[in-house]
Design a protein that fits this description.
Blueprint (H helix, E strand, L loop, with lengths): L1 E6 L7 H11 L7 E3 L13 H7 L6 H13 L2 E10 L2 E10 L2 E7 L20 E5 L5 E6 L8 H9 L4 E5 L7 H12 L2 E5 L4 E4 L2 E4 L5 E3 L5 E4 L6 E6 L29
Helix pairs in contact: 4-5
Amino acid sequence: MKGAILQYDPAYLDVERNLAAVDGLIDSLDADLLVLPELFAAGYFFKSSEDLRSVAETADGRTVEQLKAWSRDKNAVIVAGFPELTASGIYNSAAVVSPQGLVGVYRKVHLFYREKELFQPGDLGFPVFDVKDRNGEPYRLGVMICFDWYFPESARSLALSGADVIAHPSNLVRKDCPRSMPIRALENHVFTVTANRVGGEESDGELLTFIGQSLACDPAGEVLCSFTREGVGVETFSFDPKTSRNRDITATNNLFGDRRAEVYRLA
């Protein structure tokens, strides 16, 4: 099957402009799975809670409805970040959609920097979603968002729950993630697909510069495709998600079978 990553520079708080920009970038998309950045249509470095609330949406709002329309049109599963408005607050979330509709939502567990002032921490754990490629072949898709990568437990939880692929919508500003994602893929024997953004945003005189460098990795830690720091567009790669399921390391070692949870400090 084919995976795809979109990397671009969204406009702050201009949802319609951003949706139109993405629509143009994916006009000729040919992929089974597309991953977009974190908060891809909203902007990221919010100047106030009022700014965030102005673009926050429910899981049946404008942005997710557009994701569903793209999914139907392109016959692709899409994972993309959005600010999710709920009765209990606003979450930094990612929607998983298929041509049949909304598959599920993941809410970011590990909030980064000033996100803690604006968002609620995720309360859904690390779910794994059952999806299909364009030929109807099922595979298991996990999701984490941006700073979740910094905690090995995030990807490990998804892998232990059966994820073949981890979609990773991001707004990365730290330089260490692109060099770390091959390790996350290797240590869990999963495919990882990190979609970052480019450009910069300013709040209270502080500038955040996003580092681009989106990338997809295979279970051996090899990079399947990658972007530059400034690149804008869509990159595709071929992969078979089911190859992640053989976690034998040698004839006598298995990645999960050899785990010794009884001697680990897990909390």
